[in-house]
């Protein structure tokens, strides 16, 4: 499958044409280009970085080594976010640590009336997110252009307005976790993967300050690690959130937790 992805990328063909045009002879330049990409993949570099794109929630995002590669399990966070604002006209949404912009843009695509602010502390990530927004969203969407702000979590916000919904997929891998030195994670930005501590500090920071930025009955949804649901729920309850619960991804892992501002 990965070989097909790389070859289709080199040729500029849809993958179906690898079958319908299977008898065509390829020039040496394209064969060499394929082998160059094949070598990168054999060295462990993620497919998404090699072809500089990844599909997420039906949209094709540009991806670089400056951002986390969007993953299928994060689509659950988008689904829960959309459910949280389903009955709200022109909802105000905040995406903390937006990276490639995948979460914010997916919500914006599904809810053209949503007014969305997305933050990140990395200039390269914000630039990429803005590029994705320009290429994936219509210029005349009712909710307007996405507002991108640079800074560490809520410190990026300069407007005192509050939000109907806050979402985030923060770094939640513990600093000592061996997975950081394995597979695709070796090639992704470390600051997007780990908090350089126990994996819970970013989650705690976001939860502790969320009430200041949420409207009454506003929702907070957070992606977290496979074994962090109970700790995340405890923090939400400790900070006064109601209807706190965790939802499972397609692998039946408690992947996203959230609640409402009481």
TrEMBL record:
Its EC number is 2.1.1.297. S-adenosyl-L-methionine binds at residues 97-101, 120, 153, 169. Residues 2-51 form the Release factor glutamine methyltransferase N-terminal domain. The keyword S-adenosyl-L-methionine applies. Pfam families: MTS, PrmC_N. Signal peptide: none annotated. Residues 84-177 form the Methyltransferase small domain. GO terms for molecular function: nucleic acid binding; peptide chain release factor N(5)-glutamine methyltransferase activity. Substrate binds at residues 169-172. Keywords: Methyltransferase, S-adenosyl-L-methionine, Transferase. Methylates the class 1 translation termination release factors RF1/PrfA and RF2/PrfB on the glutamine residue of the universally conserved GGQ motif. This is Release factor glutamine methyltransferase. The gene is prmC.
